[in-house]
Amino acid sequence: MIEPGTPAPEFTLARGDGAEFTRADLDGKTTVLVFYPFAFSPVCTDQLNLYQEVLGELAARGATMYAVSCDATWSQTAFRDQLGISIEQLSDFEPKGETCRAFGVYHPGGFPQRALAIIGPDAVVKWSYEADSPGDLPGANLIFDGLAA
Amino acid sequence: MTELRSAPVPPLEPDDHVRGPDGAPVVIEYADFECPYCAVLSDKLAARALRRAFRHFPVRSSHPRAWPAACAAEAAGLQGRFWEMHDLLFGDQGRLEDPHLWQRARDLDLDLARFDADRRSDEVIARVRRDFESGIRAGVVTTPTLWAGGTAYTGRVSEQTLDALIGALS
How many CB pairs under 8 A join A and B? Predict the structure, then answer.
């Protein structure tokens, strides 16, 4: 996975409305990227539900969270709507996994490894974390450790 | 700003909800009242000689009625009936809407107006959130999470695991 201190790579993801989300969208902000394997899968469901509960504390620290997967935009939107969460979804559907590869989190099984990246306002990776297994759910405490690092 | 960086699970506080005999092994549950696995674990713990503390860990989008139920338990606690409300909530998880909470308050002979004001109060919301945040800091990610002797046991905790952890604590 991409290491702290590394400038964020050039990338393009699709937002829910079809607009692009690129490296330029990182500038001047603190961004938390949550790479998750599959929309509607059990651990991803629990993970996004949990993180939704701390969005206020992230905002208080000037950080914005985005969830990234290789699912299509329509699937991500349906997933978000079903959960009733507000975490914005970013799709790495086509070319499949290109952004995940750029961040070093593309799993050979065809999905993002479960991973977190915090990118500072200078578009440099401040902190990163890759779970030992896609079945492991990183606690929200780790994100706050990363923000304080 | 609320501190959410990693920290050990807090030891028992004077205002923790604790029951069980003095001197018995201590366990701390992070749970929510809409979680069926929490209800099952609660029954298992009740059948054992344990000193157990209950802490709230409601996640709204997983269990939409977990927060109101947690606040109802805290409001009952302000009238000295936390554990009675705890048992009534776990006893019928299919009925957690407001009228069901009011009925439980009536069944416990609580001051209903006070109960309803308290369960919506800043004090009660802060109390529930305090538990939740301590769980977040300790790395809790799901319910139930049972802490025993500094080790966390999550999800479905088997009878054998419970026996083993109690044995280790005794």
Answer: 61
